[in-house]
Amino acid sequence: MANKPDKLDPVWDDLDRTMGQLFMMGFDGTSVTPQIRTLIEKHHLGCILLTAKNLKSAEETTKLCYELQKCAHDAGHPVPLIIGIDQENGGVNSLFDEIYIRQYPSNMGIAAAGSTDLAFEVAKATAQEISACGINWIFGPCLDVLTNARNQPLGVRTAGDDPQEVSAYGVAFMKGYKAAGIATLGKHFPSYGNLEFLGSTLDVPIITESLEQLSLSALIPFRNAIRQGLDSMMVGGCAMNSAGLNVMHACLSEQVVDGLLRSDLKFDGVVVSECLEMDALSHNIGVGGGTVMAVNAGCDVVLLCRSFSVQQEAIKGLKTGIENNMITKERIYGSLRRVLTLKSKCASWEKALNPPGINFLETLQPSHTALSTKAYNGSITVVRDKNRLLPLTNILDSEEELLLLTPLVKPLAASAASRVLEEAATTASPEPATWERNASVMSGERVFRELGRALARQRSGRVLHTSYTANGVRPVHENLINRASAIIVLTADANRNLYQHGFTKHVSMICNMQYTTGGEKREKPLIVVAVSSPYDFAMDTSIGTYICTYDFTETALNSLVKVLYGELSPTGTLPGTISKSQKLQHSRQHWLVEMFNEERDANALDNLITAVIEGASPNQRSELSSATSNSFILRHPEVEESHFVVRNSSTQALYGFCSTYFFKSTGTGAIGALFVDPARRKLSIGHSLHNRAIQTLLQKEGIKRFQLGSRLPSIFLGVPTGHNAERKRLRSWFANLGWNTALSRPVCSMVARNLLTWSPPDGMAKSLAGAGAEFDLVYGWDYSGPILDHIKTSNRQGLAEVYKLALSDPAACGIIRAKRPEDGALVGTVVLYNQHSRLAEYVPPLKDLNETAGGISSPVISPAVGEYSTLLQGLILLGMRQIKAQGCNACLLDYMDGDGNFDGFSAMGFDVLHNYEEVSCDAATWSMIPPA
């Protein structure tokens, strides 16, 4: 036998007072208006909806809530008003305040951050902030499962398309709201996640799924939230049309509310109807009749957003329905009990008349600001970065221009007030709308302008910014694309704004058809950023670099800038099943890395070198052109070398090779080469080799710094930069591994040909005579003392080892010295060698010249010398004369750094052979790296 309901206080015998508790109404204005005062005092209105049109700031909101509660209290209401708002975060907030109310990611943005604990904390913080202003009911969590991303308006307001994931985050949000002491409302039952829209506002969106289909997917989050104590539920105004189910409006259907929600899902909380002012519902049925139908269906609270005349019509309709016995008093008092139970959880006169307000918000501000930053930083998702365009510092030089292309969009609007907000945006008025005044919810145009400025502040080069519309790619866009060195295109719900999709694809096509001045095809870097729905280009792999921010608030775009410039490593992942349907960039294979075994791997390394040479671009000379497996083996007593391979143990083929050297004289660990079979790139072989190399060098006693590139052996002097597109790709690749490529220094190999017919430029000999130095050429170890002391004035890696090799090989190497005449002190030295020297074995470019050649290596000029360039040119000039005298027709400068006078060398007859960027960092820079 069912328990008899608790006896109600006699005050509720007044039917008008009771009916007032069953309505939730909104109004226009930022203070108590005569209309809302009438509804509270005369019609005993018990629930109020506030939207963006009512709320100017946290302080004004606190004042408004207090005035509403005071009005109800003075009118003799037995219980306080329940005051609700939409505060979903992202772009759907009703209350904004730059100082006191923090912005947090949207529902889907939080899910992208991947933590239900974070969801709880954000929900709790959101609820604390609105509660401090006197609001006690939040219209959340959003429990819709996004089963039709293309055709419905929810977008990032839901956690995604996986019912279990939506459920987990929905429950976490709900618990966070409850922890702050406010009432919760699940929406939009039975799901807005798969609606079919027919076009006209008078057409009702339709759910076409059967109850069985809904039960298996869309209803799961609602069912779980009910079990965990959800306080109230909003039932949508959509139609339902499937086998055994034909409903014009769900919130007016007894089959949906009393049947599906109450009986099947056992929900005994407060049921709220969709706003009965929505065009389709009021046009088809009328508000008076709709109110009667909603209450009879099982709705406890009928929502009417704004029109005073319509609100009066609804009250009259409910009263007429009771008087005509269309609605039983049992139904009315059952709803009243549920409303009073809800109010007992979140409202009291003590709280209502003493909202904490600004003072409490000030205490929350520091921790909530940190939480907002953490949440946004964690949500930014790099879905793909095929060509390693991130961070931008790796692909853009300071003099190059960056182009930002952004759509013209309206801000997102809270659900119950969406029409009102849109109207406010288009009303001609000297006073901007609330959302326009506040930087937290700037219009798309304004917030994107701020994004452009933020990008510009981060780089010395120019940022070009223009918008695009449904007019497509115009000549101005084409001109800017051709002019810029990299492009960023923003999209906002391109699935529903198809012009954005078409524009982005057109820009992608233009970028793919770019050509260099030499006529070579070169893909221009393009980054696409979806600033709302991640579904815009999630599955379109032709967009090689794709980032999702999940909303376009200023806070979200600040985190985006950090990701674009490498200040923040993105950790967000696409929520829902979409991330499971594709292999994302974040998953990497870890290959078995083995020590190089010369006997076992030498022939295979020669084959790998051949494959890399053949895989180079047609117009690009490979640095490995004359290298062999022997080129990497130093066997130097003062250099510890360790080399690594990734190989196929069955076929013995090498897939990748990495050489490392530890120069004890300077404490430098160098990666001298790192290359992978072109047919097996982008499989993480290089990552695995690199990680093993760093781990090994970290173990060296006395390690002080790391370097990309090695003077000895002189194969790769750094990151190869001779080919622009390849340079940017490699810089980006190494930057992603942790190297600060922004602090690189240029180095190169140079060659002078036709030496037998060469003569020094006019005036150079005279200039040499004025250098204030005496020059001589010495051979052998007997001269080592002063020379080795002299080169200690430079801490460059490999110098000592090059000189010791030369001093130990007097038959094929010499050293030109420059001495101060007055005391004989060394002020400059340079190494000479020929093709028969041992040093030449480690300089493949010398063999690559395919003619009789000699080399000049490792000039060292004393820091105290004033005429640095003159002295350096003098040493090189004398070296060239000596090499010419030996019958050589070519001279190689195998390692010249950016401090040298390249123009001066060009005047002497040298051309650049290979360009590199040497990258160095302190050993302390490297933290522990995951095992390869």
UniProtKB/TrEMBL annotation:
GO biological process, alphabetically ordered: carbohydrate metabolic process; peptidoglycan turnover
Annotated N-acetyltransferase domain residues: 639-708
UniProt keyword annotations, A-Z: Glycoprotein, Glycosidase, Hydrolase
Signal peptide location: none
One annotated GO molecular function: acyltransferase activity, transferring groups other than amino-acyl groups
PANTHER family: BETA-HEXOSAMINIDASE-RELATED (PTHR30480), PUTATIVE (AFU_ORTHOLOGUE AFUA_8G04060)-RELATED (PTHR30480:SF8)
Family indicated by similarity: Belongs to the glycosyl hydrolase 3 family.
Protein name, as recorded: Glycoside hydrolase superfamily
Source organism of this protein record: Clohesyomyces aquaticus
